[in-house]
From TrEMBL:
Protein known as: diguanylate cyclase
Molecular function terms from GO: diguanylate cyclase activity
Cofactor: Mg(2+)
Reaction equation(s) it catalyzes: 2 GTP = 3',3'-c-di-GMP + 2 diphosphate
Organism: Halomonas nitroreducens
Length: 559
């Protein structure tokens, strides 16, 4: 093959270090003879020089021109290598450069694609220093003593381009080779032990691999001067060149996954602390109604003598039926749970009356993920003190402080309920209006303390002589009213007369001397035709004044 000058290129006129061997120096050509063929061109072995830093070819002998399918040396030197070089190849060459600068000789298998055709070659690479301090790569293409079939070549090429980081070590842990992905770890020639953050762990693994062919684990590895979590796949196999044992290590960076796992564990622990610190009993079920999470407050509320963790996996249906006796309305408790779980409504809040007189507030929230029910969250809070406090407040708001009877507010509220029932045609009802006769004279004669005794005596008489359904009320100073549901006029009049007599017969043990007092009672009935509660009260009031005008100590009626 005819070539141009090989002592330099059109791109670089600097004499190359290999110029002495690129041309013949053993024979001088005669004037009538052609110039001698350069020595390297006589070789059948392809030889070329590649500038790794500038990604350009600097020299190639005749065999290399044939390998690279180049018609002339100039055509090869003008070729744009950067545009066709893969990232894996570029990373591999960058590793070569640092190794060649340390004086290493590199023997590796390469697959080239000149003209789009794959050519596999064993390459021996050495460094060629330049005057400017840089180093070029002298490559000798050698016949391999290991024949690789197409399948093996493809596998080798795949390992060079996959993102999995693959390193090969001898049995002692010394580096043999790395694929381009592993070269990005920037470990240099680090041994197996030096690749680990924990050298002792690495030594133990080497010992294990002496008796164990494979090993999978996660470990902290050294990467670019930092530490990263890697998933390791270790395999002890045989070096196809030396027939000695070697170790293949595949690495996959899982740092992000480990960070997420750590964040999830931290969030889970934080959530557990929050859940345990709540005074609300929490129970989380999955879609099969098995317990996922319960806290200590839940166990305390239901007197469960077990740690919350022991409840995980428990069947909540069975637990609900077992807990029925703890509720005043056991069947309603279970039925309500089933209705909520069946998805008849979303969030719900219920007040549960317990058999031990406690009250629980239950909050239900369906757990919906991707528009599907994935579980159920129950929150239980003991509100017994709150309910009792509310009851006390309600009692105070509706009770006369002196007599303990219902006050005017309670009278109005209950009278409206009875009036509504009468209008609905449920049953008759009567109303008594009771007023102490000459009450001002009692206060003036015996003092207000004795007058208060008279009020309390009247209240005690009403409490003791009326039915449980009747509601006696103190509506003003010496005026009392009694709501009597389910009471006919005739029966009501008899009750009023007995009360009048019983009150008159009782004496007040005053400090000066005992005294008696009487009452005047007005009786009326609830009417469906009453336009308002005031109409009913005016009728009772008129009946009471009628009794006073007729001489006091008597009962008068207005229907």
């Amino acid at each position: 093959m005819k070539q141009g000058p090989t002592t330099g290129t059109p791109h670089d006129t600097t004499p190359h270090p290999c110029a002495l061997i690129m041309t013949s120096s053993h024979h001088l050509s005669l004037p009538d003879q052609p110039p001698p063929e350069p020595l390297l061109d006589r070789l059948q072995t392809p030889v070329w020089i590649f500038d790794i830093e500038r990604e350009r070819m600097h020299y190639a002998n005749a065999a290399a021109l044939r390998l690279w399918n180049a018609p002339t040396i100039d055509a090869l030197l003008d070729r744009d290598w950067s545009s066709t070089m893969s990232d894996a190849s570029r990373q591999r060459l960058a590793d070569y450069r640092s190794r060649l600068q340390r004086g290493e000789h590199i023997d590796e298998h390469w697959t080239f694609y000149p003209g789009g055709q794959a050519v596999s070659l064993h390459c021996r690479c050495s460094g060629l220093p330049l005057e400017d301090g840089r180093i070029e790569m002298l490559v000798e293409g050698l016949e391999s003593d290991i024949l690789l079939d197409a399948s093996s070549l493809r596998a080798l090429e795949a390992v060079r381009h996959i993102p999995l980081m693959v390193s090969v070590f001898d049995a002692a842990g010394q580096l043999l080779v790395r694929n381009p992905a592993a070269l990005e770890l920037e470990r240099g020639n680090a041994s197996f032990v030096d690749a680990f953050e924990d050298p002792d762990q690495a030594r133990q693994l080497l010992q294990r691999l002496e008796h164990q062919a494979n090993c999978l684990l996660e470990a902290v590895m050294r990467v670019k001067g930092d530490s990263r979590w890697h998933h390791l796949d270790l395999c002890r196999t045989t070096d196809p060149k030396t027939s000695r044992a070697m170790i293949v290590m595949g690495e996959l960076d899982i740092t992000r996954r480990k960070d997420l796992e750590h964040a999830q564990l931290l969030a889970k622990r934080q959530l557990e602390v929050v859940i345990e610190s709540l005074d609300v009993g929490l129970l989380l079920e999955d879609e099969r109604r098995n317990v996922i999470v319960a806290n200590q407050a839940f166990c305390d509320i239901f007197a469960i003598d077990a740690l919350p963790d022991t409840l995980v996996g428990m069947d909540c249906r069975e637990a609900a039926h077992a807990a029925k006796p703890a509720f005043r309305d056991p069947e309603r408790f279970v039925a309500r749970i089933e209705a909520l779980v069946a998805g008849e409504q979303g969030q719900a809040r219920d007040i549960l009356a317990m058999a031990d007189d406690r009250f629980l507030e239950r909050c239900y929230t369906p757990v919906i993920v991707d528009q599907r029910h994935r579980g159920h969250l129950w929150g239980y809070r003991d509100i017994t003190r709150q309910k009792r406090r509310e009851a006390d407040w309600a009692l105070q708001a509706s009770t006369d402080a002196l007599t303990g009877l219902a006050n005017r507010r309670a009278f109005d509220e209950n009278a409206r309920k009875v009036a509504a029932a009468v209008k609905a045609g449920e049953s008759p009802a009567a109303l008594l209006m009771i007023d102490i006769d000459r009450f001002k004279a009692i206060n003036d004669t015996f003092g207000h303390a004795e007058g208060d005794k008279a009020l309390c005596l009247l209240a005690d008489t009403l409490k003791g002589k009326l039915r449980d359904d009747d509601l006696p009320c103190r509506t003003s100073g010496e005026e009392f009213m009694v709501i009597m549901p389910n009471m006919s006029p005739e029966v009501a009049e008899g009750v009023a007369q007995r009360l009048r007599i019983q009150i008159a017969e009782r004496a007040i043990a005053a400090e000066a001397l005992p005294f008696h007092f009487t009452v005047s009672i007005g009786l009326t009935g609830f009417k469906a035709s009453d336009a308002s509660l005031e109409a009913l009260i005016r009728r009772a009031d008129a009946a009471m004044y009628q009794a006073k005008h007729e001489g006091r100590d008597r009962v008068a009626t207005r229907w």
